[in-house]
Amino acid sequence: MWLLYLLVPALFCRAGGSIPIPQKLFGEVTSPLFPKPYPNNFETTTVITVPTGYRVKLVFQQFDLEPSEGCFYDYVKKEFMSQGNKMLLTFHTDFSNEENGTIMFYKGFLAYYQAVDLDECASRSKSGEEDPQPQCQHLCHNYVGGYFCSCRPGYE
Questions:
Q1: What is the reported pLDDT for 86?
Q2: Pick from 7, 9, 13: which is nearest to 44 by CA?
Q3: Where do the CUB domain residues begin and end (predicted)?
Q4: Residues 22, 29: Cα–Cα separation, whole Å
Q5: At a CB cut-off of 8 Å and minimum separation 6, what does 75 contact?
């Protein structure tokens, strides 16, 4: 219970930094306090990381944010499919959630992520991996979570 007393006030202060999610093959990410209304004047970045050899796919199941032209007030910056094994998801809210002077209670978002196999045999320059392996000189064979190189017959 004492942890709750520390976390709740922190959610209502303007936050910076990022929240790492433990490295798993799938999971869930939500806005703060979801499904209850999210706090005003808040920003956080969630770092979703899956094992090397995979990339992150994000699917939103619920999305209820304050509407504004060009997403000026409240927004989520997102990629639906990462290039590498990390994805940054930034959630930002402005100072209020009002519509014509009426306070609105937007729930925020609920999304699921999953690790999707990264084809290491494809162009490495587009993969976004932090420590890319060199391209195979002859044949590249992709498998779930990795790859291996082999030579053409007669070569070593």
A1: 92
A2: 13
A3: 15-77
A4: 11
A5: 65, 91, 92
Classify residue 81 by its DSSP letter. Answer: B
Q: Report the alpha-carbon distance of residue 59 to residue 114 in Å, rounded.
A: 9
- Give tens-digit pLDDT for 47-83: 999 998 899 999 999 888 888 888 788 888 787 888 8
Separation of alpha carbons 11 and 2, rounded Å: 15
> Cα–Cα distances in Å, from 65 out to 21, 43, 80?
22, 14, 18
Q: Which residues contact 69 (CB under 8 A, 6 or more apart)?
A: none
Query: Which residues, in sequence order, are CB contacts of 119 under 8 Å at separation 6+?
Result: 142
pLDDT digits over 9-60, tens only? 333 334 455 676 667 899 999 999 999 999 989 999 999 999 988 999 999 9
Q: What is the Cα–Cα distance from 140 to 88, expressed in whole angstroms?
A: 30
Range ranked top by mean pLDDT from 11-15, 28-32, 118-122, 140-144 = 28-32
Q: Which fold has domain 26-119?
A: Jelly Rolls (2.60.120)
